[in-house]
Amino acid sequence: MPQTADEPDAVAVRTWCALALDALGREREAIDAINVYPVADGDTGTNLYLTVESAAAAVEAVFAAHETGTSVPSAADAVRAMAHGALIGARGNSGTILAQLLRGMAGVLAEGTGGDRMRLALDRAAAWARDAVAHPVEGTVLTVADRAAAAAGRAAPGADTAEVARAAYEGARAALDATPGQLPALARAGVVDAGGRGLVTLLGALVQAVSGRAPERPYEAVPFVPPPAGDAECPAADGDGESGPAFEVIYLLEAGDEAVERLRARLDALGDSLVVVGGDGLWNVHVHVDDAGAAVEAGVEAGRPYRIRITHFAADRTHARPEPARRAVVAVVPGEGLAALCREAGATTVLARPGEPPASGELVDAIRRAHAREVVLLPNDADLRHTAAAAAEQARAQGVRVAVVPTRAAVQGIAALAVHEPDRSFDEDVVAMTAAAGATRYAELAVAERQSWTSAGICQAGDILGLIDGDVAVIGQDVPATARKVLDRMLAAGGELVTLVLGENTPPLLADSLEQHVREAHLAVDTTTYQGGHQGAPLLIGVE
Description:
Shape: globular
Structural class: alpha/beta
C-alpha cells in the first residue's frame, strides 16, 4: 500500500521491510557470491537477509499488538521496532552495520516525516554507521551510505520523501560501481562491495515503499576491469580480506556507555573488523579475533553478554561454491514421542528430560553421531541458546560446518524440519528453516507448583498455566478450557495450521475436542496432532 510521499507512516515502514526482505531473498545468493571483504566467507547476502528478517518480525509484532483495536501503530513505533529488531537480530559484519544505519534513520524519522526528515535520517544513518566501525575502510558499505546521504542532500529544495529516496538510491548506485577502484580486494576479484550492493537493494525497496513504484533503473553491476599492476588509482592496502583472525565473535550486550567505550578499546587490541552498534543500554558487538574466549570475557567485564555466536572461519569459509556434502539435522526434543517423529524425518535427536537440559558436550556428541560435514542444530528451547552456540563452536573447530537455527520450542523445530531440503545450498536451507521457525508461534500448558505472581495475575498451586511465547497468558482450572483459551488468543492474530503435541498424561479425548473447537471457531485452519510421550508439559501448541 503506497503512502503519500510527504507522510510515510507505519504502513510504509511495514511495506519497506517486506519489500526489502523479498528483494534480499531474491538477491541473497548473488550477494553471497561477491563477498570478498573483509572476509571471503560468502555470507553477506544471508546475513543481511536475516538481519532484515528480524527487523520485519519486530514491526509485525507491533502491528499484531494493535490488531485487537481499530488503530494502527504510529510511524515512531514502527521505525523504532524496525531498528530494535535489526539490532537484536544483526548477523555478521554487514548486518551489524545495517542495524546501525537503521538505528540512525529511526532516531530521526520517529520525530517526524517528509522529505527534509528523510535527508536528515540518511545523513545521520551514514554518520552513525561510520562511527560504529573502529577502522572505517573506503570502498565498503560505509562509502555507499555516505554517497547516498550526500545525493539525498542535493535533491531539489522542497523535494518530497519519494524524491529524496530516489536521489539516495541513484547516489548509492553510482558509489557502488566505484567501489572496486577504492578497495584492492574488490579490484582483484572484479566485483563490487557485497554490503554496498545490499544497501542499494534496501534503498530500492525504500523508493518503492514511499512512492508505490520500483526504481526505474534496477541495479546491474557495471563490468569492472582491474587496472594494471601498480596503477596509482588502485593502491595496495594492508589487509584485504584474504587472511586474518580465526574467529568471528558476535553477541548482544547489556552495558552502560562508559563500559562500552572501554570494551571497544580492548576488542580493538584483540582483533579487527570491530563494529559496536546500539545505545540506551543495549549493544550488538562484532569482532574478528584469534582468541574468541578473550573477546567474550571482555563482554562479561563490560556487562551482560548473551546470544553469543562464535564462527570459526577456517571451518566455515566457502570462498567458492562448496562441494556437495552430506547434511544432517540435530534436534533437541522434550519427549520420546517427538524424538521418534524427528528420527523418522532423518534428524539425529538429543532427549531433554524434564529438569535435565542437555549440556554442550551432549550436543557435540550428537553432531559427531550425525557423521555429516554440514549440520543444522535445532535447540528447541530458549534456555539452550548459549549451550547450542558453545556446541556449534566446538564442532566448527573440528571441521564441521554448523548453523544454529534459534528455535525456542519443539513446535518451532517441527516447522523447521518440515521445510528442510538437503539438496539445496546450506545457507538457503538454513534461511528457509529459520523463516519457518520464526513464523511459528508457540505455547505450552503447565501446572503451577505454588502460588505466585505472573503476567496474567496471581496463580495458585495446581492451576493450569497457558504460556504463549514463554509468558503466562492464561490461568485456568483445567487443561481443556485453558487450552481453548490459549488457542483462541493465538489464532486471533491469524494462522493456517495448529500443531498439538500431547503429553503422556493428557486426557485422551483432548485432541479431538481441540480439533473440533478449531474447526468451529476458526475456519480454514488445519490441525495436526502428535503424541509427545513423557515431555513434562501436558500440551505443546504451535500456530503457523
